[in-house]
Each structure stands twice: as C-alpha cells, then as structure tokens.
Design goal:
Length: about 650
Amino acid sequence: MIRGILIHLDRTLWIRSDHKHSIWHLGLDLFRKHVLGVDGNRLSLLLSAVVCQQVDFDRLGRSTPVSSLQSINQLLHTTVGAEGFDRIILLPLIKSTDLFYEDEGKRLIIEVISDSLRVGGPQGYLRHSLVRIEAEVSRLSKLFKTSDETINEHTQSAILQSVERNLIYHHLDTLLSKGFGEMLVGFPERESSQSIQDLYKLIQNLGKESIQKLRNAFLIWMKQIGNRIVGVGYETSEQREKEDEEMIEKLIEFKLKMNDLVKICFESEREMFHVVKEAFESFINQRQNKPAELIAKYLDQKLRQGNRNMTDIELDQCLNQVLILFRYTQGKDIFEEFYKRDLSKRLLLSKSASIDTERNMVMKLKEECGGGFTAKLETMFRDIETSVDINNSYQTVLKKHKEHEEERSIELNVSVLTAGSWPSHHTAELQINLPNELNSSLKNFENFYQSKYLGRKLKWNHLLGQFILSASFHGSGGKIKKKELSVSTYQGIILLLFNEIESHESLGFEKIVEMSGLPVGEAARTLQSLACGKVRVLVKTPKGKDVNQTDCFSLNHEFKHDNFKIKINQIQFKETVMERQCTTKKVVTERSTLLQLSIVRIMKSRKQMKHHELVMEIINQLKDRFSVQPKEIKVGIESLIGRDYIERVDGSMDEYHYLA
C-alpha cells in the first residue's frame, strides 16, 4: 500500500538520484533494522518460537494456521532473504526437530528392545520412520515452499537430516542387532523384503559409516547361516554326516537367495555382491576340505541323472551354480581327486547321462582353472575314444583269423587307460582266478595290442569290469528258462563256478573264496548281491540277509523274472572313512611335494630372498589349487635346507640362498 502511494515519487526521484535506494528497497531495509532487528530482536525470537511450536503441533496431529505460517515464511524470504531465513527460522527449527525426534526415537526404540507389540518391532519402527520422513517432506512443501528451488532443497535437506539422524543413525546398532537378522530370515516374504528395502533406503543418506555397518551386519549374518549349513563345530557327529548329503544343495539355494536379496533389496549394489562373495569364501572353507569333496559328489549325482529330473537348460544352470561354489573353495586339489575318481566310474561303467554334458563340465573347469587342471580329465575322455577304435581293430583281426573262433565266441571289450591319468584305486591288483576262456581272450588281446603299439605294456585291472552271461534255469516243471544276466566281473566269476559242478550241488563260502581268488570281504559282498538282493539267482543256506563263512550256495532253479535281460546290481557300499582319509592323505602328500617344488622354482629364479617375501610368493603361486599356511611353508623350507637345496644367508635367520 505504501509503495502504491509513493509510486510516482519512487519513479521520479529514484531516476534523478544516483545515491538513493528505491522506496521499495528502502522500506525493506527499514523493516529489517527496526522490526526484525539484526541479532536477537524480540520479534525475531517470537517468530522462531511460533513457527517451531506450530510445526511440532502439526507433527503431533494438531491443527495449525497454515496460511499464517506461509505468510511468515514469505515475509522473511522477501525481507531478509535466505541468510536471514536460516538465522531466524531454519536453525531454530532444526534444533526443535532434533529435540522432537530425539525424544520420539528414544521412546520408541525402548519399546523395540522390550518387544512391545505397540510399535511392531524393528520392522514397525522402520515403517514409522519412513512415514515420518514422508510427512516432513509434505509439511515442508506446504509451509516453507518458495519460488527458489535451491532454497527449498536446502531447507528440506537440513530438516530431513535431523529426522534421519535422530530416528535411524542414533539407533542403527540396535536396529541391526535386534531386527535385521529376522528380516533376512524372512526374505523373500513381502513384509521382510519391504523392511530390508526400507532400512537400506533410510541408511543411504546417513553416510559411508552407516552403510558399512549395514554391510558388516549382512556379512556376519551370512557367516552364521553359512557355518550352520557347512556344519562348523559339528564335523564328527552322526547327524552331521546325514546333513552333509544336503550341504551343496542348501549352499546353492542360499547363494541364489542372497543374490536375489541384493538385487531386490539393495538395488544390485556392487559392494553388497562383494560382501556375499566374502561371506561364502569364509564359511565354505571353515571345514577344510569337506565342501570340495562334497561338490565333486554332488556333480557326480547330477551328471549321472542328467536331464531326467530337469531340462538341459536347468541342468546347465545347476552346473554353473555348483561352479560358483567351487570357485570359493580353497581345496581345489581335493575336488580334482574326488571328481576324477567319480568321472572314471561314470566313463568305465557307462553311468554318464550324457557325454556331451560331461565334456561341457570339463570345459567349464578348464575355463575356471586352466588347462593344467583338466589335462588328466581330458586324457580320460581320449582313452575312452581310443579304446573304441582299438576294440574295433581287434574284432577286425579276429574275423580274419578263423583259428581264433573260440575267442570270437566271447565278445571282449577292453578299456585301455593311461595309467598316470586315471585314479590310483583303478590300478590296484587282485589275484583273482578268471575263467580259462576269458584268460585266453585277454592273452590274445594283449598280443594284438603289443604288436600294434610296440614298447607298451598292459596291466589288467578287473575292478570295474562287467560280464554279460547267458543263463539257463531248469525249473521243477522241466521247462528251461533262458535269461541274459548283466553282472560285475566278481559276480560273473562266482556264477561261472557253478558250471563246474552238478546243477543240484552247492558250494560253501570258503570253497568259493578258494576257487575265485576273491578276498573274503569282497566275496561276501558279491554273494550277498546274488543270493540276498532283489534278483536272487543263487540260494543261500541257511536263509538270511547276511553272508557267513559257514554258508552254502546253489543255483536257484526256480528263479523267475519278467524280463529276459536282467541287471544284477552289486551291493552298494559307501566309501568308508578310511577310504576318504586315504584319498585326502594322498592329496596332502601331493601338496607337500608341490609346495617344495614351488619353493625350489622361486629360489632358483630369484637366487636370494627374504623369508616373508618367499612366503608371500609361494602363497600367491599356490592359491589357485589350495590354501597353504605359513607354518607349512616353514616346514617345507626346513626340509629343503636339510637336503641342501637352499641355505640360510650367513648372519641372517630370515634370508635364504639357492644352492645350484
């Protein structure tokens, strides 16, 4: 109004004067000095108190004079600008906001700690905090919005920081320790998933320290769950052995769940994926070599089943998931030994669901660990292919020589294996007594092979051999029933012993052991499969499920079966603790050799090194195969010093010199 009255004077006088302010600016200056004052004027303090009080009333749900507050805000922005508004309104408002939410945060967090149902636990507290923040955004937009977006953002940021600081930051440790684990356990249920997202959203504005606290809490929780899955601290219990059978499946499920959690709740944050990786690398290696062994066993199961229970795409995805767990394990040499043992059985016994899938898995391992890791595995495949060609050549030779008509009556199929590439348990020799016809065929094949490959020598191994026998059973009605039996070498040897006696006669256990040359334990297990299993081609006297050394056996002439071709399974026995220990011990011995070779190779190249430098170099070289401890390195160094490969530098206990 005053400006309107003096508008003519303002226009004419201001234009002619070089030293006078416009009446508008003059009025603003007088208002600032005499009405609001510069420092601590009573009206300024009153405005501050009124605004803070009315904002608190609004937070409590009471009615507030919105238009009056808006007018005050506009007046101050117009007269004193952003700097004056901060001094008169924003700074006092921040203090009152601190007091309001500090009190509310303390009160509600006590109820969270005491498990009060009124708050709804940590999840309810987080929901309440988000509601409060959203309400503050709305309130600020309603009461303090100006035409200057920079001022609006500055005001909103300052107030929201106060809310987040007092509701979340000051109580973050309690929220993480009290409720975060429950939220993670509940994922992927909608409520738990939303609570984790809420927590992540609230923490993001609190700085790196708070985000790191969240990552650490996530890491600790995953380690706790992972340790339970892996069985840390319960390695020797009987219950643990049963749970070990499901360990890899559970680890895969847990890994997939954590990946989904990071994608959904943590917005695919790269650092969170690193936390997942760190957790798995930690707990999967807590039981030394066991997970690596079980990964190999799990792959054996899947490669035998193939796509019977899943599609080819699902099977490939499963193999990739197992490969991720393999990547985390430090005992890759343990995995290699058990995987090689199982692969040999799948190849020699034709138990693989798909050779293409087998090759694909080896290629995955090659890409992961390099050609040196899979060299022996690839040789095993080549041996199987080469054996097919050798057998075809042998059959061609037999057809050309009529004098070998007897050998042609036995369809011989030999797998010729490279001794150094196949597991050692396949080269163990048993002095078993083979049928004369088979011995003759094996001798002829050996002569053929040595004439084709000069200088090579064959060593026969019958452990995983198989027989296909034609059998005739004379029933009580006089009708002869013919069957084709697929059996193991040991089963075949025992069954053929009954060709040497009358059909009504029987053989005692000790006689069978003597005639077959089988060890007592192997003979008992084989007879049990023939006389006590589902397919009983022998009759045991006296009856019973167990085989004793006083038992007698005879052919079961009343044998009946719907199929002409019958597979008689050998009694399956799990690897004993001793056998697993032998496999592990073999790998440990190889580790010692590799460790010493690594020391010699490094010292030969560097000539002289400090102890700590040598240790770090060794750990770096061997990390892709197994984890080596400084104590083991020290033992290897002392062994090489004792054998004059290296020596300590004169006057120094922690420096070594290579001896040529």
